[in-house]
């Protein structure tokens, strides 16, 4: 590599910005020297005109692309929104603030105000239950093992950090913890963790970071269910169009209906428009 050559993308962007600034300064100085302040005013007017034209063209292209482009569905974000909506609707009135306890070397700190709460079942080891035969279940019961233990219940706390009225503009955050990872659901709730981690838009206690079955598998299977739902919606739309039940498609068919044209023999013949 040549000495002094930028190595990172950030350095390259910095050089590009400096180069553009130097070019603009050189053009301004040249205009002042050759045409004075009058020429500089004309130059600024032209630059602003070109910028406005470019912005207008860009907006037109952006609108056309948005109209023609099929909206992308973020299945993980959609599932998160569903949890937020359900949690806000089902929040117990006695829940107040959310805290993280820390440990003997890390002090307790406040996460924010609880604005929602709901409980879900995790997908961890759910396939194992589906594969169990009656003999396997009987064998587990003899050992004192409850097959339902393979299903993990998770408590979802929806919280906001900022106080009211600033919290109106804050996006709710979702913390997913196990039943034994927090205190009782009365008043202020304490999460038994040192800190939080963020994966796939959710927050989890730090001890769950390497639990692939709890985090990664759950998110993948939740997205898989969401994909099935989106597929079924598309199938309904296709079925409606194929059967003529869709209003827009039916209107188009009516506009293209066959016209009855009298024939010389006194019978009617059809002509497609």
Task: Give a quick summary of the entry.
The chain is α+β, with helices and mostly antiparallel strands and 273 residues long. It has helices at 9-68, 75-89, 126-130, 134-142, 216-243, 247-255; strands spanning 95-100, 109-122, 152-160, 173-178, 187-191, 196-199, 202-205, 258-262, 268-272.
Please characterize this protein's 3D structure:
The longest helix is centred in the first third of the chain and has 60 residues, at 9-68. The protein is built from six helices and nine strands; from the N terminus they run ααββααβββββααββ. The strands form three sheets. Strands 4-3-2-1-5 form a five-stranded mixed β-sheet. A two-stranded antiparallel sheet has the order 6-7. It has a domain at 78-222. It is an alpha+beta fold and 273 residues long. Mean pLDDT is 80; it is low at 266-273. It starts with 8 loop residues before the first helix and ends with a strand.
Average pLDDT figure? 80
- Overall outline: extended
Radius of gyration, in angstroms, nearest whole number: 32 Å
Instruction: Give me the secondary-structure category.
Output: alpha+beta
Distinct helical segment count: 6
Q: What share of the residues does DSSP label as strand, in percent?
A: 15-25%
Strand arrangement across the biggest beta sheet: 4-3-2-1-5
The residue ranges in which pLDDT falls below 50 over 5 or more consecutive positions are 266-273
SSE string: HHEEHHEEEEEHHEE
Q: In which range does the helix fraction lie? A: 40-55%
Through-space gap between termini: 69 Å
Number of strands: 9
